[in-house]
Records
---
Amino acid sequence: MTLVSPKPVFAPFVGTRLRFAPVTSRLRRAATSVGLGLPALLAFALLWEAAPRLSWINALFFPPLSQVLAALWDMIASGTIAEHIGISLQRAALGFLLAVVVAVPLGLVMGRYTLLERMSDFLVQTLRNTSQFALMPVFILVLGIGEASKIAITFYAAVFFLLVNTIVGVKSVDPLLLKAARSMGTSDWDLFKKVILPSAVPSIVAGARLGVKTSLFSVIAAEMLAAQSGIGFLIQHSSLMLETDRMYAGILTLTVTGLVLNYLLVALEARATRWKASEGVGPA
């Protein structure tokens, strides 16, 4: 008689721990990278403080870091920074969400049906290789200087990252999974919902990471060109008024916002792709 060893009582938890390991590992690597980069960042901050005070550069155009931080604190206390960055993030979010609504379903269909992709590929490649920055005057002339043009620019900036990555994600689905689902009589809708979309999620999230940052950069540029609010407007207006401490405070705010968004998206991407690292790992 063959004796079968019973599974340990903690076996159900092993798979869970291993599934979360890739996420933890990526976050740990990111934290290590930040820690290793702190000395260089501190050296840059000291140089920024010293250079204007030692008259290496003109303090009118490049004020000391302490003066910039004081201006930033004043704008935080008055609510100015929160108001402007909130407006910019709202514009970028609306354009990005609209891009998700359009690009992801279209990318799923184009990736699944080759004929449709071939028919539209030339148009997509033409549009995605036309810079959104070059088209800003067109958006403003057609849609005006209001919110519509800002949202349209951010939509245009993000939509092709999402579309192309969704198509790539669909095409990377294992053909054996599709054949197995078809052999079981799975409908087209269930095939998209239960096989194609889950397999394409990592690629879609990677496209979203690029799209979010591009949307934010595009709305900042649009606000500098034609707006009365937003962090881009604040930076441009402060520059024109020679309020360089407020200008650099706005730039710092934008930098910190970009860093926070980047690390949030890195964590989201790690979570979306953790099944790849844990595939085939876990209790029998």
Note: Residues 24 and 270 are 9 Å apart (CA to CA).
---
Amino acid sequence: MNLNLKNPIVFFDLETTGVNINTDRIVEICYLKVYPNGNEESKTMRINPEMHIPESSSAIHGIYDKDVENCPTFKEVAKDIAKDIEGCDLAGFNSNRFDIPVLAEEFLRADVDIDMMKRKFIDVQVIYHKLEQRTLSAAYKFYCKKDLDDAHTAEADTKATYEVLKAQLDMYPEDLKNDMAFLADYSSFNRNVDFAGRIVYDNNDVEVFNFGKYKGASVKEVLQRDPGYYGWILNGDFTLNTKNVLTKIRLRESGMIK
């Protein structure tokens, strides 16, 4: 089944220095851009993370310090990547929990102003886990009836994710709609306000904290009765995106922005 697209959609995968969305960096990015008319464009690039790639990570994706020492930094290619994904919905495998937050952090570090929250996010892993619960390699075998060669390379994983989503639409016509808004909603466990899911919308569309001692409490009310909590988060081990979102809420509630 071909995708029913209103906007182009970019399937992407990241290989990184680790799994900490706050501090780890991209070492490889691959994205496959699919247009509403069915045309496809793909790009893969290695990135110098400006930090040591731990051996434990290299053992998974096969990328070592020497492989990226002469590659551009993310800051050097950030504007080109932002241009490529401008106006596109985004899709990946475990992308809502990892790839989207990591990419957002990299854009913020590079001072590239791109509002990713305007996009629809389709996480093929979430769809898969809700319906079958397996890994990408198993998903590829199950849905596409093929073995996934070169697993944990960004290019192979990206192409496999694209094929899996199309096969999911073929296999579950009663459960899934070929509509990116539907798939984005289906892909989400929480309605995140920030990419890391530290702040989410509750059933009444109120922004609430999703962690710690104030989990489930209104962000607005917490900032009013415990203003020091804002400073604790700003100085804590949270993503730049989370801090920016919280700051915007604080400024909005103080009447400084609308």
Note: The first helix runs from residue 55 to 61.
